[in-house]
Amino acid sequence: MNASAGRAVLVGVDGSSAARRAAVWAAAFASRTEPPLRRVHVLPEALYLMTDAAVMGQGPAIAQHRAAGQRFLDDASTEARLGFPGVDVHTELVPGPTAPALAAAGATSGMIVLGAPTPSGVGALAAGSTAIALARHARCPITLSRRQSEMLP
């Protein structure tokens, strides 16, 4: 993996606790390997597939989704800057669907990091649907972060 050569570490942020843990893990990794850290939130697919007429009627809902996405990014970035002050953090809202959007955003990245809930039992080795779909599209390694934030790289 070439993240240490300056290629950004991209982390998908959706507001979930798993994504927050992944964001901390990615910040810790970036603090040790020194690439920039890109936080990306993918807007729901329906928001960019709407017709112009539908968008006009859904303006407040679209604004709410964008504001919520920006809050997720701001919260994750604040946590990264507080815990790892030397990390160069960038944020971005991109249109979905999620896996292709993350793959496109991560096309020049050294790594993509996703949060995944900690499964138990039979599903312990399974990846989520976004991770599986992203594996078909990504051009760089993908890391699934399942551990508590105390378990940093």
Strands of the largest sheet, in order across it? 3-2-1-4-5
Q: Total number of β-strand segments?
A: 5
Average pLDDT for all residues: 82
Number of helices: 6
Largest sheet composition: 5 strands, parallel
Radius of gyration: 16 Å
- The general outline is globular
Q: pLDDT under 50 segments (min length 5)?
A: none
Written account of the structure:
The protein is α/β, with parallel strands linked by helices and 153 residues long. Helices cover 46% and strands 18% of the residues. The protein has a 5-stranded parallel β-sheet with strand order 3-2-1-4-5, with helices on both faces. The chain is globular. 33% of the residues are buried.
Give the helix/strand layout.
Elements: E1 9-12, H1 17-33, E2 37-43, H2 45-49, H3 52-57, H4 59-83, E3 89-95, H5 98-105, E4 111-115, H6 129-137, E5 142-145
Parallel strand pairs: 1-2, 1-4, 2-3, 4-5
Helix pairs in contact: 1-4, 5-6
